[in-house]
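step=encode ok
step=design start
structure_in=
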C-alpha cells in the first residue's frame, strides 16, 4: 500500500527533477502539465499575451463574472510556476508541451526541425510534445469549443443516443482530457526516443477511448441498433431513479443478478432460465421494470450503495460534485486538498494518483507571469542530460541492463508484465507495444480474460467465421480482446500453486513493472504484495488500479465501467438536457483509467531509473474519472452548486448542437450572434416543413460555413472509417484465426510518422514457453515439467461447457 500523505512528506515525488515548459493553452496541454506537476515535475507555464483562454471559459450556462477565474483554469493549472516569456531559458526544459500546429511552430524556437537539427549536432535541445484538435499537420489547432466537432468526427456519436433523437455526445471536454492524458504519456516517452517530436491529437486520443464501439463494425461487421439509456443485454442497466437521485446497478455478472434478485425480494428469478440468462432477459424487460422501479424509488442512493459495501453486488451512486466533496471515501483517501487561487482557497483534486511523495506541496494557481523562472537548477540534474546519451536502436527483447541512476532507457529496453483483464488495464499495453515496449500478458485457465468471449458472443460472429463457435478458436475471435491486446505476448501461469507463483516471480525479477487491475484484495491474497515483489526485484514498479483504490471505505466494493461512470461524476452530466442522469453504453471510464494508470506506469519507471528504487502506485479508477470532470468539483467548491446540464451544447458559444439534414445529422458551432441567427432560420425552415429536414448535409455545410459556422458531419462506426479524418487512422492487422481485420491505429506520431502495430493479439498460451525461457530464464526441461504438472500453460474448455451456447 502506498505511504499515507503524512508519511510521504519527506519523500521525493516520482517525477522530481523532470522539467517541463508548458506553452499550451486550453485544456489538453495544460491537463498534461497538471498531471506532470501533480506527480512532482517542475512545470513552468508561459501564457500568450492576453492569457490562456481557459481563464475565461464558462463551464455551463452561468456566465463568469468580471474578474472571475474559470473553475476549468483552476483545475488545470494548480501546482505550476507561471512565468513571463522574457525570462525563458530555452535550454532549461527537458520537454516542451505546445498546442500549435507545425505551421504555427515553423521557424520559431520550438520548430521540430530546428530542435532535431540541434540535437543531431550535439548542441542539446528539449524534446517537443504537441497536442491539437486534428493533429500537428492540420491547418487549425482547434479551440475549446471544437470538442463537439471532434467527438462527432470519431463516429461514436452516431452510435450513441436514442432512436428518433439527435446524436448524444460525451459530457464535458472528454476528447481534450484524453489527449491531455496521452500528452503526459508522450512527455515521458519522447525522452526515451531518438525522435525529437511526439504528437497526439484530440481526435486520435478519443478514438482509442471509444474503440470498443468499433468492434461491431470492424470486427463483427454487423450493425447494432441504438440501445438507448438502458442497454437491454445487461438490464437492469443505466441510470435508475431512486428517492434522492439516481443509481447505476450492475447486471452483467451472475453475482449481480443474484444479489439484485435477493435484495429486491424475487429469489425465484435467480434460476428462471428466461431471466437468469442476460440475453434472454431482454424479452422480459417490461416485467422486470414493473417490479424494480418502485423498489429503487423507495430507497436513497446511499442506502442502495450500502448493498455494494456489504454484498458482492456491483451498484454505484450517480454522484454529483457536491456529493463528491463530502464523500467519506474520497476525503479519507486524500484526493482533495486546498488549492490557493488569486481569489482565495478552493477544494480540488491535488494528485493524479496515490504514491510516496504525493501530494506535492504548494498547490496554487498563480497570476500570469508572476513567478520567477527557476534558473537556479543545475542543468546536470535534468532528465535531458541523461536521455540524450542513450542508444535509440535496441533489440525489442534484449534483457534490461544495469542502468546508472537517472538515465532513461529507450522504450525498446522496457518490459512490463500486464496482469489485467477487460479494457482498462489492457488499454495501456495496447498503446505501448507500437512504441517497442515488451508487454507480457498474464492469463490463467481460470480465470482467463473474459474479453476473449465478447464480440463474438454478444452480437454474433463475423460473416464467414460462424463455425468458430464450436471449438476453442472461439476464444481467439473476440473483437474486444483482439482490439486492445495487439502486439503483446501471452503467458499462462497458475498463480494458485507454489510452483506457478515461483515461475511468475522469476518473470518479475527480470521485468521493469507490473500493472494489475484486479480488486484491491487480489494481489495480497495471492502473496504478491509490493514487499514480496520488491524482495525479488528492488526496482520493480507496481501499478494497481482497482475501481476505488487499494484503501478507503469503498476499496472492497466491486466496480467496472458503468459503475465508475456513476461514481466518477460523468453520469450526472451526461445525457439529453431533459434527463436527470445517464450512463453511456461504452464503459468510457475504462480508457480513462487506462490513461491514468499508463501515466502512473511511466512516472514509476522514471522514478525507478532515477533513484534505483521501486515504487508502488495506487490508481483509483473513480478518482481518474473525476479528474476528467475536475472543473465541476472546483465549481462546487467555489460556488456551492453542481454544474448545470448542457446536453449537446458547448458553454460560451452563441449556438452549438446538431441540425438534422435529409441524409443525417450535422454538428454545428457558432461563435457570433449573426451566425446563430442563420442557424435559427434554417431550423425554422424545417419547422415550416412539419419538422422534416429539407436540405442535405452538404447543402447545410456550405450555407453555414459561408455564415461563419464550423461543422462536422455525424457518421457512425460503420461509415466513418471510409471517410476522412478517420480513414488515415485505421490500420489492418492480420490475425491467425480471424484473418485481416481493421483496427484503430496508434494515437501518436513520432517526427510525423505514425508507429505501426506490433502484431495481432496473442492466442491463449501462445508465448508461455518463450517467455519462461527468455525472460524468466527457465530451462526447456524446467518449462516442460511445469507445463506437464499444470503450473504453466494449458487450454480453455470448449465454449459450450462455459455456457456460451447460441439459441
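sequence_out=
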Amino acid at each position: 500500500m502506498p505511504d499515507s500523505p503524512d508519511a510521504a512528506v519527506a519523500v521525493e515525488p516520482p517525477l522530481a527533477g523532470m522539467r517541463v515548459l508548458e506553452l499550451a493553452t486550453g485544456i489538453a496541454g495544460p491537463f498534461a502539465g497538471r498531471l506532470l506537476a501533480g506527480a512532482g515535475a517542475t512545470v513552468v507555464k508561459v501564457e500568450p499575451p492576453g492569457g490562456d483562454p481557459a481563464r475565461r471559459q464558462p463551464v455551463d450556462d452561468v456566465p463568469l463574472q468580471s474578474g472571475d477565474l474559470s473553475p476549468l483554469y483552476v483545475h488545470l493549472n494548480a501546482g505550476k510556476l507561471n512565468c513571463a516569456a522574457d525570462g525563458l531559458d530555452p535550454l532549461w526544459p527537458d520537454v516542451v508541451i505546445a498546442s500549435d500546429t507545425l505551421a504555427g511552430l515553423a521557424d520559431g524556437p520550438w520548430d521540430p526541425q530546428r530542435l532535431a537539427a540541434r540535437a543531431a549536432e550535439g548542441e542539446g535541445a528539449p524534446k517537443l510534445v504537441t497536442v491539437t484538435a486534428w493533429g500537428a499537420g492540420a491547418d487549425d489547432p482547434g479551440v475549446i469549443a471544437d470538442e463537439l466537432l471532434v467527438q462527432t468526427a470519431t463516429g461514436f456519436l452516431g452510435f450513441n443516443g436514442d432512436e428518433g433523437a439527435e446524436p448524444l455526445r460525451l459530457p464535458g471536454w472528454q476528447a481534450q482530457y484524453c489527449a491531455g492524458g496521452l500528452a503526459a504519456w508522450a512527455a515521458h516517452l519522447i525522452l526515451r526516443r531518438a525522435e525529437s517530436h511526439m504528437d497526439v491529437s484530440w481526435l486520435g486520443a478519443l478514438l482509442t477511448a471509444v474503440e470498443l464501439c468499433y468492434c461491431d463494425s470492424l470486427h463483427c461487421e454487423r450493425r447494432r441498433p441504438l440501445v438507448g439509456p438502458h442497454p437491454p443485454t445487461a438490464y437492469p442497466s443505466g441510470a435508475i431513479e431512486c428517492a434522492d437521485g439516481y443509481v447505476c446497478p450492475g447486471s452483467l455478472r451472475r453475482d449481480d443478478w443474484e444479489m439484485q434478485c435477493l435484495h429486491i425480494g424475487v429469489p425465484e428469478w435467480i434460476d428462471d432460465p428466461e431471466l437468469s440468462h442476460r440475453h434472454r432477459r431482454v424479452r422480459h424487460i417490461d416485467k422486470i421494470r414493473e417490479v424494480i422501479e418502485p423498489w429503487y424509488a423507495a430507497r436513497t442512493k446511499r442506502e442502495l450503495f450500502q448493498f455494494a459495501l456489504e454484498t458482492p453486488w456491483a451498484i454505484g451512486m450517480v454522484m454529483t460534485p457536491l456529493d463528491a466533496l463530502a464523500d467519506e471515501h474520497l476525503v479519507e483517501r486524500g484526493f482533495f486538498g486546498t488549492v490557493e487561487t488569486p481569489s482565495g482557497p478552493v477544494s480540488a483534486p491535488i494528485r493524479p494518483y496515490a504514491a510516496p511523495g504525493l501530494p506535492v506541496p504548494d498547490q496554487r494557481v498563480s497570476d500570469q507571469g508572476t513567478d520567477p523562472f527557476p534558473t537556479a537548477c543545475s542543468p546536470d540534474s535534468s532528465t535531458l542530460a541523461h536521455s540524450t546519451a542513450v542508444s535509440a536502436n535496441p533489440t525489442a527483447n534484449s534483457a534490461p541492463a544495469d542502468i546508472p541512476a537517472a538515465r532513461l532507457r529507450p522504450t525498446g529496453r522496457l518490459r512490463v508484465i500486464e496482469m489485467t483483464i477487460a479494457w482498462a488495464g489492457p488499454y495501456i499495453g495496447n498503446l505501448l507495444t507500437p512504441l517497442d515496449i515488451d508487454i507480457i500478458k498474464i492469463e490463467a485457465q481460470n480465470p482467463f480474460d473474459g474479453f476473449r468471449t465478447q464480440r463474438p458472443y454478444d452480437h454474433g460472429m463475423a460473416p464467414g467465421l460462424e463455425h468458430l463457435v464450436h471449438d476453442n478458436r472461439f476464444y481467439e475471435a473476440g473483437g474486444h480482446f483482439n482490439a486492445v491486446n495487439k502486439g503483446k505476448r501471452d503467458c499462462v501461469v497458475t498463480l494458485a500453486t507454489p510452483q506457478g507463483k515461483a515461475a511468475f516471480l522469476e518473470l518479475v525479477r527480470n521485468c521493469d513493472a507490473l500493472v494489475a487491475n484486479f480488486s484491491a484484495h487480489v494481489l495480497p491474497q495471492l502473496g504478491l504484495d509490493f514487499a514480496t515483489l520488491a524482495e525479488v526485484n528492488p526496482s520493480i514498479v507496481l501499478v494497481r488500479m482497482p475501481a476505488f483504490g487499494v484503501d478507503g471505505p469503498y476499496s472492497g466494493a466491486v466496480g467496472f465501467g458503468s459503475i465508475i461512470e456513476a461514481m466518477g461524476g460523468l453520469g450526472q452530466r451526461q445525457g439529453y438536457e431533459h434527463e436527470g442522469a445517464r450512463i453511456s453504453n461504452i464503459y468510457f471510464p475504462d480508457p480513462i483509467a487506462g490513461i491514468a494508470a499508463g501515466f502512473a506506469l511511466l512516472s514509476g519507471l522514471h522514478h525507478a531509473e532515477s533513484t534505483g528504487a521501486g515504487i508502488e502506485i495506487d490508481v483509483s479508477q473513480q478518482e481518474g474519472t473525476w479528474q476528467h470532470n475536475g472543473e465541476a468539483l472546483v465549481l462546487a467548491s467555489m460556488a456551492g452548486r453542481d454544474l448545470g446540464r448542457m446536453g449537446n451544447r458547448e458553454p460560451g458559444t452563441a449556438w452549438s448542437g446538431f441540425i438534422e439534414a435529409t441524409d443525417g445529422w450535422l454538428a454545428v458551432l457558432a461563435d457570433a450572434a449573426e451566425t446563430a441567427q442563420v442557424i435559427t432560420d434554417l431550423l425554422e425552415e424545417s419547422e415550416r416543413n412539419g419538422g422534416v429536414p429539407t436540405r442535405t448535409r452538404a447543402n447545410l455545410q456550405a450555407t453555414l460555413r459561408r455564415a461563419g459556422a464550423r461543422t462536422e458531419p455525424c457518421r457512425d462506426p460503420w461509415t466513418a472509417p471510409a471517410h476522412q479524418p478517420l480513414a488515415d487512422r485505421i490500420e489492418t492487422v492480420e490475425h491467425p484465426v480471424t484473418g485481416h481485420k481493421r483496427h484503430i491505429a496508434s494515437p501518436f506520431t513520432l517526427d510525423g510518422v505514425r508507429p505501426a502495430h506490433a502484431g495481432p493479439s496473442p492466442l491463449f498460451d501462445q508465448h508461455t514457453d518463450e517467455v519462461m525461457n527468455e525472460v524468466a530464464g527457465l530451462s526447456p526441461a524446467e518449462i516442460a515439467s511445469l507445463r506437464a504438472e499444470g503450473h504453466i500453460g494449458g487450454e480453455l474448455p470448449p465454449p459450450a461447457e462455459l455456457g456460451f451456447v447460441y439459441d
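step=design ok
step=annotate ok -> Residues 655 and 676 are 5 Å apart (CA to CA).
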